[in-house]
Amino acid sequence: MSNKKLITKQLNLSSIDDVQIEYNKMFMILPTPIVDKLMNLNNYSNFKWFTNIKKSSVDDNHIKTLNRINKLIIILKSIYDKNKANDAGKYIYNFQYKKTDFRKLFSADACDTYMSFLADIGLVNKCEDSNYSAGKFAYTYRMSKELFEGQTYSMIFNLQKSYNVEDENEVIYTYYNSDVKIDNRMKLTLDVVKINKADAISDEIRYYLKSNNDNIESLAHRINNILSFGSKKYLTIGKKVNRLYHHITNLSSIARKHLNIKFNFVDITNCQPLLLAYTMKSNNCEVDAEYINDVENGSFYEQFMFLNSNRNQTKVSIYKNLFFGFNKNNETNELFKKLYPSVWEYLNQVNQNKDNSGQTLASILQNIETEIFSDVADVCQNSGYLFTLHDSIYFDNVADEQPVKEHLTNKFSEYGLQVRFNF
Fold first, then answer.
1. Whole-model pTM?
2. What are the pLDDT digits (tens) for 198-217?
């Protein structure tokens, strides 16, 4: 179904050429059953607010109903964008509904009406234990997993806008946490950086096809993050860790290649495993020599690859069953115990003590990571634009590459650890 504003089309992942020329008008991507439900006017017949518009002809009612569906999808996209990964890398589905999030788009009453409708059709649900207080706490809702799980996906195109780098999304809101102290150049970068959305989406799909990845949900998240880029600018800090988050954080390394500023970058190979050794040594804990050798040489994940089909799945399994979770009955966990018994015992102790200490391994490692990278921007004396991204730093002048590498090398050498870089 289409109208003057919206058109939908199923995403064909057998070839990138099928939709490449239309990427610059794409608005959102969702599981096909959800798109079919939203675009089918028959599904609105029981909702008089959508279909009955007084003193209008039948044709006018039809057009106005479609326009309201368009606004409904705008609200839905903003809700979808709230589903970000938490500090442990897991997606969360709860979100707080704040009318101020939509203040540039709709009136408060209209927002409430659209939210009620989304709840009626089962795409969001108000949490029963929502801690609402007027002027203090917003209602908490939970998104339906239907929004994120599908065998096929369809694209929604907005024919009134062109989302090229020259025509960025309207900035819905800007929020920079005043408690977060950053280099002024990073603030400038967050203000001015843009992305060529058509080229970024094309590359994401090329990567998906080339890698034979079957995780289409992940691809959908990546595409929607690209489509949302520029509409919400923010800088904040994690609730349980000191990690910085900003609107560039949501872009994959593939998409970041299409920013309007040409960046060089340095990140640490096997950073989280190396940070574990750093943490243990700083606390005078014994670290297996084999573990240090493997993380320093960049061959840590390769020790487990025969258990999985590729390196990415190996990393996911290690983080899920050892670093950010601890599943003793998993084969990756069992192999880790055989290879690195001292490190495994440290992980076991952290897991057992997390309820009393209030610290998970994820929070420990990410706080160390933030501490190490907190002053790395200071050594970039030649760059006008830069930003940190967890265990990496991006800068626009290649002359800063060597000072950054020397700075980070010195940090780890304090505990006798060698570091390798990706750049």
1. 0.79
2. 889 889 988 888 876 667 88
The number of C-alpha atoms within 13 Å of 249 and in the hemisphere containing its C-beta is 22
Q: What pairs with residue 6 in β-bridges?
A: 158
Tokens representing residue 152 in the block: 């096929």
d(CA 246, CA 395): 16
3-state secondary structure of 33: helix
Question: CA-CA distance, 185 to 117, in Å (whole number)?
Answer: 43
Question: What residues does 94 pair with on adjacent strands?
Answer: 142
Cα angle, residue 123 at apex, residues 120 and 126 outer, rounded to 5°: 70
pLDDT value, residue 190: 93
Work out the mean pLDDT of the chain and round it to a whole number: 80
DSSP classification of residue 11: -
- Is the Cβ–Cβ distance between 8 and 154 less than 8 Å? yes
Helix (H) or strand (E) holding 312: helix 311-318
With 80 as the cut, is the pLDDT of residue 407 above it?
yes
CA distance 188 to 178: 15
Of the candidates 291, 286, 317, the residue with the CA atom closest to the CA atom of residue 304: 317
Per-residue pLDDT reduced to its tens digit, 359-393: 888 888 888 888 888 889 999 999 999 999 988 99
Banded model confidence at residue 81, pLDDT cuts 50, 70, 90: confident
In 139-188, at which residue ranges do the beta strands (DSSP E only) sit?
139-143, 153-158, 173-176
Mind giving me the DSSP string for 179-233? T----HHHHHHHHH--B-HHHHHHHHHHHHHHHT---HHHHHHHHHHHHHTTTEE
Give the ranges where 358-399 is alpha helix by DSSP (H). Answer: 361-373
Q: Which two tokens stand for residue 332?
A: 């990756």
Q: Are 188 and 177 in contact (CB under 8 A)?
A: no
Secondary structure element (H or E) that encloses residue 316, with its range: helix 311-318
- Token pair listed for 354: 């997390």
